[in-house]
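Quick one: examine the sequence and fold tokens given here and explain what the tokens say about the fold. Here goes:
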Amino acid sequence: MARILINSIVLYLVAFIYDVNGKLSNKLVGGAYGYITDYPFQVSVRIHGDHHLCGGCIISNFHVLTSASCITSDVNIILGNLKVLSGTNDRNNRDNYGKIHDVDLVIIHHEYSPRKFWANDICLLKLSNELQFNRQVVLPSIEFLYERFHLEIIGWGKPPLPFYIERLEKLNVYSILRTECSKYFRSGYILSPGQSCILPSIPAASFIKGDGGNPVLSFASGSFIGIVSLITTSANDPTVITELFGYYDKWMKLTTEKF
């Protein structure tokens, strides 16, 4: 059974749900096909091994990074039954290429706060057994400004077709100014320093259930710069992401070295 490490965390999700559903199992809509050979670090975080909760990103042979809201916000999620699926394009692993990994430890950021508009929405999963993969994601080393910079989201989706395909997709997005993003949310909802907002580059595309925790990549360099956090119910509203620059040295690196 997975051990859970949650430092001084109190969940107040019910009163603050508003119209943000980043914690629900989401999918990309309107993206293009992606291939796990191009994004071998992409994983599906699951319960009981067969139900997709959210996306995640391999950052070491033992660690997966995802959103804290994915792991904590539903009372029906049994943490001891968390699994990680890696190595496949198919979210249901019908090609049998994927491998299921047990989660040994859940490490939620000690300042994660749904009360503060889901500030510090970041979580590490330590796996029971070592992962074997051929290419690690490029982690951020310095902070840089990327307002309106071309970005890319990877995840599993449902294309706008009359049949249902649960395979890996990629979607081009761009970031918007924090001042512009704040206009979309109710008064009192303030972005924390570690949050920013993105919109799809294609107007018809959107985020729906299961995109929480998906990696946000720099389109130019492929660097892993953030994870999807909050997804609104309106396709026209921005999605909030957790930026990794402020977490890499101060939390991610220290935590993976300790656990």
